[in-house]
Every structure is written in C-alpha cells, then in structure tokens.
Amino acid sequence: MDYNSVGGDMEGGVEDCIWGKIEWQEYVEKLITANSVDETALLEKIEVVKSNVGRQIRKAVISSLNHPYDSITRLQIEQHHPRLVEQASALHGLDLVQATISREMSHLFETSEELSSRFASAYEKLNGETCSLEQLYALKKILYAAYRCEQLIRRLSTVNELVKQSEMICELKSIISEFSQLKEVLWLREAVSVTAPKLASEARQRTAKQMRTSLESQNAPLVASCVRALRNLSCYEAEVKALLDEYCKDLDAQFLQLITSPDLAGKTLPHISSQVQNYVEQLFLLGDETVSSFCASFAQIIANRVPANVQYSCRILQLFTPVFSQLPSSSSKRVFEAFRPLKTAFLSQSLNRMFVAVNAAFEDSSMRNAVVEKISSVLRKELCSVGWDADLKCSVEENISKAMELISQKIEELLKLDEESLSIGERVSNTQASNYGLLNVAYALSTAWQKYDSSLMSVAQQGRDAVMALGKASISKILLSMHSEELGAPSPYAKELCEYLNSFRMHISLFMQLAKCDGVLAAFIDYVIDLFLIHASLFRPTSFVHLGKIADDLRLVCRALSSFDTPSALLSSVPEFADALCKKCEVLGSDTSLPSWAVIQLLISHSDGSLFSPHEAIGNSLQQYTEWFSNLPSAERIKFLSSVIESYTSSVVSQNCSEYVSTYPLIVDVLKRAAEQ
C-alpha cells in the first residue's frame, strides 16, 4: 500500500500495524517519508483503536464474571483467550506507536522552530539591506536628476534651435515634476524654482513670435518646427487660440466700422477680403482643425456684424465666396450658412430692382422704344453681378423668369385687342401704335431672354394672331363682294382689297419682325391667294371674259402682296394661276398649274345649273363655305369635292337623266389624277 498518496491512508495503516498485519518498521519509514500527515487525525485514530480494544476486553471480562465456572464457561474463556492475548498485544503495540509518533512529532517541531528562527533572522537582515539599497537607489536618481537639471539649464543658454530647446525644457519640467525633492536641494533650489520657469516662459514667447513671423511669410517648414516646439511646451492650443482671437478681433472691428460708415464699403471690403484670404492661407499651414475654428469665428462675425438687408451684401458674397469655396466643405460649412441670409436678402433686393425697372419702363408710353434696352440693361447687370457663383446665378435666373412673367402681365394688361382697337385703317391710331409697340417689346424681350421666357412670347403671339385674324376676316368680306359687284378693270373689290392690303402692310410694318416670325406673314399671304382662288373658282355664272377680269384682279392683288417683301409658297405661282383661269375647259382639265380642287370648282362653275356649286350642294352660304373650305388641307378638299360629284352622279341616275353636264368627264378625270397623287 502506498501511504504517500493520501494522508488519510496513514490513519488506516496504523490500525493494521497495531494488529500486526504489517511490520512496524515498514510503517514507521513510510510515516516519516510521507508528504503530509494529519497528526490530529492520526492520534484520534489511535485513540479510537485503543478504545475499541478496551471495550472488547471489558466485554470479555464482564462476560466471564457473570457466568459460573462450569465446563461451558471454561470452554468459552478458552475460546476468548487467544483473542484477549491478541488484544493485549495490540494495546502494547499501540502504546509503542503512540510513543514513537510523539517522539517523532517533537523532533519535527523542534526542527521547524529552529528553521523558523533562522528564516526570520535572515529575512530581517535582507529586509534591512533592501531598504538601504532602495534609499541608495532613490538618492542616486535624485542626484542624477539634479545633475541633469543643472546640465539642461546650462545647455539651454547655448541652444538656439526651437525644437531642440523645447525638448530640453520639456525634459527639464518632467524631471522637476517627478522629483519634487529637488526644490529642497540648496545649490539647485534657485535653478528649479526660478530659472527653469523663466526659461520655459521665454522659450514659449520666442516660439510663438517665430510662429507668427513664419505664418506671415508662409514658411511651411519653419511653421512646422514652431508647431512641434509649442506642442513640446504644451502650449500649442493656447497660442493658436490667442492667434485666432487676434485675427477675429481685428476683422470684427473692421466690420463694425462698416456698420457706421457704409460708404466705405467699396474700399474697405476688398482690403478685408484680401486680409481674410491671407489669414486662411496662413492658418491652412496649421491644419484643417485651425481653419475650421477660424471659419466658425468668421461666420459668427458675419452673423453679428452684417445685417441681412445691407446694401453691400452682394459685394460681400462676391469677395468672400471664392475665398471659402477653396476650403473643404466641412470647414467652410458654417460660413456659407452665415452667407445664406445675405443671399436671400440680395435675391430679394435683386428681384425688387428688376420689378422697379419693369414698372418704370412701362409708366411712360411715349418711351416704348427704350423699354427693351432699359429692362435688358437691368437684367444683364443683375445677371453679371453673380457670375462668380453658380448657385446664386441660378437663383438670379429664376428672378429673371419672374421679371419676364411680370412683363407679360404688364403687356397683357396694356394690350387692347377688341375689334375696334384692332380695326385696320389708312391711319394708325394711338391705341394701335401702343399695341404694336407693346408687341415689339414682348417679341424683342422674348428673343433676347428666350431662356427665361415662359409666357411673354405667348402674349406677343396672341396679339399678333389677333391682328392677323382681323385681317383675314376683313379680306374674306372683301373677296365675298366679288360675287355681288360688277367686275371691271380693275374690279371694285380688287381695288378695295389692294387698298386694304396696303393699309395692312403699313400696320404690319410696325411689328414686322414678329409678323414674319414662325412664317406667320408668309402664311397670311398664302391665305389671301388661296382664298382668292376659292372665290374665283366659285364665281358663277362665269365666262372667259369674267375670268379674264378676275385674272387681272389676281395680278393686281399679287403686286400688293409683293410689297410685303416676304416670299411665300404661292406668291411666285400667281402669274401661272392667273393664266390658268382664262384657259378653256378642255385645256383646263389637263392643266397642272392650278391646284386640282381649284380646277374642279372652275369646271363646276363652267357647267350648267344642274350641277350645283359645292356650297349650294351642302346648303351653306358662300361666306360659310369659303371660311370652312379654306381651313381644309388639299386632300380633304379633293375628298369633299369627290363626294359632291358622287352626289351629283347619284342624282342623275335617280332622275333617269339622259346625260351629264359637259364638264363632267373632265371633272372625273381630274378627280382620278388627284386620287392617284
């Protein structure tokens, strides 16, 4: 059994040893070499074994006393005798074990006490020596620190390089802070208490001054050295704050002076702008954080010292926006937030100036020719004043659009487009002159500021279209008289039409550019020619004599239209139209100079009354028909005339007539050719 494994095994082994189950010598050796022995438990175990043995002996004795010595009793005693002898031997062995254990334990105790005493003595000796060494080491450090302080103070008077000097001062302050006992050293007390702080203060002042000088000259390497030196001296933030305070105080004073003397803004603001630009360039050498701090302070100055409605707000924005636009948005954000009220006020003032110019331009009706230049000059000035800022330019462009809307409203209010005011006569009335002048203004401004116009051209077109519509209506009435008046050389209607066209040209000439815009005047000329052909082809009863006079009338009208000096699609073909009107029906049927619809209507007019004229076929008056027919495209005109001929054909068949009108085959041929085209 291994009694070294667990201390509890020694307790169990003592009982086996007592009873003789193991050798005593073997047990004692194992007891001495055991790693750990619970003495109390071992002794308690011996007592328990001893108690058990005694109890068994008493039990055996009592058992023998309570029974008579008969043969049975003696037999029992004899039976118990070996056991009693064994237990007595065990008690004797137990006493021996207890004595041995007590002796060994006493020896161990004495040895332990001796070792404890020797250890305590050695510990006290070592502790004393250690304390002495610690004191000596501390003294050595203090002496070294004192020597280093003296050395640094002596070297500081010879070193001029800022960073090196700051590092030495930083080291000196660190030593003094760590070893407060240096102040108690007599020969070093003055150096520590007076000289060192003085040197640190002088170095800080010298470095701060050098940094300012370097910033002014924008010497980046020297600025970096000064920054490093000030950081070593633990005063960089304080010096930078003092520098920013100085810059901002100066700027604040200058802006404050502008409030009391706004007339000086023209001279002062460029100087301030240049100064701010210089400050930003200097502070940029100190890092983004410093620039951000300056921007925040400058934004506060703008908010405090520059009223939103100040007259020179645009000048401030123009001068200072480029300065801060070159900075990162994170730095300049607050400055542009401070500029926002100025921008809003400037845009409001700009819009007001535009509106004032517009209102003033329309107050004097006699100066309409100068309206365009006056308004355009103001708009150009406002737009050019913000060319340096894309966002502000967009906002001013929105203001220009608003000004154009106001101009549209003004012109729309001043225009008089009733029939009486628009009526074309030999003279131009004051109302008409005013109307035409307004139309010219609207057209000129819309053309000059086309990018910003959304409604002005519509107003101009509305006025022009009203004049054109009245002209067309008047021409339609004049041409209608062709059918009721006697033809002549020239015919009365043609003479009246030419006179009206001359008057119309005189009126149109007052807004000729607008009239020619989008081909409106050319379309008007074509309308006159087209309407003339419609009426001429409907003239009935007709003859070649009548048609010859009508052809001469057409040539006369063509000369009147040529005076408009505007080419059109039909004007150059008028001579051919006039010649074609006089051709015989057989020739006319194959003629291509006239439009197919005009040939068909002429052939209908040459026929007898059984073939109704187109307007009679649908039950319309001549005026209604011509106005309606003139608005149809050529294909629709042919389609309509084809339906008229089909209706005639059906009526002939239904009435069982023997023949068609003489021009019927020619009309059918023309319709076929037109359908093929």
Automatic annotation (TrEMBL):
GO terms for cellular component: Golgi transport complex
Biological processes per GO annotation: intra-Golgi vesicle-mediated transport
InterPro entries: Cog5 (IPR019465)
Protein name per UniProt: Conserved oligomeric Golgi complex subunit 5
